[in-house]
């Protein structure tokens, strides 16, 4: 795990430096790199258990944001990989990964109403294979109503045909109720923030994740359950912790966070096979993000 983290961090630093010069000469760029390590925990399904495995979650996102007549386009890619330290004979995959394009637009209907439409078509798989057909295209629509500079309301909907419930609503509120305090209660990362100064923010919050993947064509046969061949696996987790966000420069911020992961589920929902959290685990996260 530490070796993977070092490799991913070096890639992120290279991309950060490269996009710094690229963004100033071409279209504006948003970027983020995030690495999370979760300590050992277990999951269970009835009497069956997968014990004492850790997790590494790597997320890389690079978005070009050129301005057009209708608003601001969002064009780029994102990559995410969950790596689990499980044994080879478990009924769960050791790796879940996705690589997807990002295609969207931010537009403004009035001085008070902002709307975002975004889709992430790509491959969501247990492991990338030549000729993979594990294609999916999740879609999100969200809107923000700016009541005043200190209070905004957010509503949205997420659509994914591979999900057990294809359409899920969401939303939240952002309320600056004191000069240094902000309730940023917007899913999937609700937070209570304290703005120490213009460059430093402390927070307590949570991260909710849920992504659908396809396992391999022979995954079920290899594990003695043929109905799991090419099955949809929904992976969900919740993390809760304390963090700090430090704006180092105008184009680079560093985010560090630590806490516990109280909830995790591996759900082959179409096959009615579900492993749930059986004990929480600590986690640590570090991220680089910014815009040019």
Write out key terms for the chains shown.
18-stranded antiparallel β-sheet, Porin, 292 residues, globular, mainly beta
Kindly provide the name of the CATH class: Mainly Beta
CATH architecture: Beta Barrel
Task: Estimate percent helicity.
Answer: under 10%
Q: What gyration radius follows from the Cα positions, in whole Å?
A: 20 Å
How far apart are the termini? 31 Å
Could you report the average pLDDT, rounded to the nearest whole number?
Answer: 90
Total individual domains: 1
Order of helices and strands: HEEEEEEEEEEEEEEHEEEE
Molecular structure report:
- The protein has 292 residues and is mainly β.
- The protein has a single domain (2-291), classed as Beta Barrel (Porin), CATH 2.40.160.40.
- The chain is 10% helix and 63% strand.
- The protein has two helices and 18 strands.
- The chain has helices spanning 2-25, 219-222; strands at residues 29-45, 48-64, 67-68, 71-84, 95-108, 113-119, 122-125, 135-136, 139-148, 151-159, 167-178, 181-186, 191-197, 200-214, 232-247, 253-268, 273-277, 281-291.
- The chain has an 18-stranded antiparallel β-sheet that branches.
- The radius of gyration is 20 Å and the shape is globular.
- The two termini are 31 Å apart.
- The model has no long low-confidence stretch (mean pLDDT 90).
């Amino acid at each position: 795990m530490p070796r993977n983290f070092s490799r991913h961090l070096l890639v992120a630093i290279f991309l950060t430096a490269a996009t710094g010069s690229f963004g100033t000469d071409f279209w504006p760029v948003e970027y983020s790199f995030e690495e999370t390590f979760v300590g050992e925990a277990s999951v269970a399904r009835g009497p069956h258990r997968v014990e004492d495995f850790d997790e590494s979650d790597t997320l890389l996102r690079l978005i070009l944001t050129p301005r057009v007549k209708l608003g601001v386009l969002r064009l780029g890619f994102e990559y995410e990989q969950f790596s689990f330290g499980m044994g080879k004979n478990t009924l769960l995959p050791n790796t879940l990964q996705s690589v997807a394009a990002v295609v969207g637009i931010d537009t403004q209907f009035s001085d008070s109403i902002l709307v975002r439409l975004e889709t992430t078509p790509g491959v969501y798989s247990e492991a990338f294979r030549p000729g993979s057909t594990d294609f999916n295209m999740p879609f999100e629509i969200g809107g923000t109503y700016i009541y005043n500079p200190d209070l905004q309301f957010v509503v949205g909907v997420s659509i994914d045909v591979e999900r057990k419930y294809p359409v899920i609503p969401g939303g939240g509120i952002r309320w600056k109720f004191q000069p240094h305090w902000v309730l940023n209660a917007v899913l999937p990362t609700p937070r209570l923030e304290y703005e120490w100064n213009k460059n430093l923010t402390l927070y307590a919050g949570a991260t909710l994740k849920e992504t659908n993947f396809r396992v391999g064509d022979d995954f079920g046969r290899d594990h003695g359950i043929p109905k799991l061949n090419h099955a949809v696996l929904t992976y969900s987790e919740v993390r809760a912790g304390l963090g700090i966000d430090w704006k180092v420069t105008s184009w680079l911020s560093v985010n560090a966070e630590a806490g516990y992961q109280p909830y995790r589920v591996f759900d082959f929902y179409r096959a009615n096979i579900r492993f749930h959290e059986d004990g929480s685990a600590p986690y640590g996260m570090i991220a680089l993000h910014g815009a040019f």
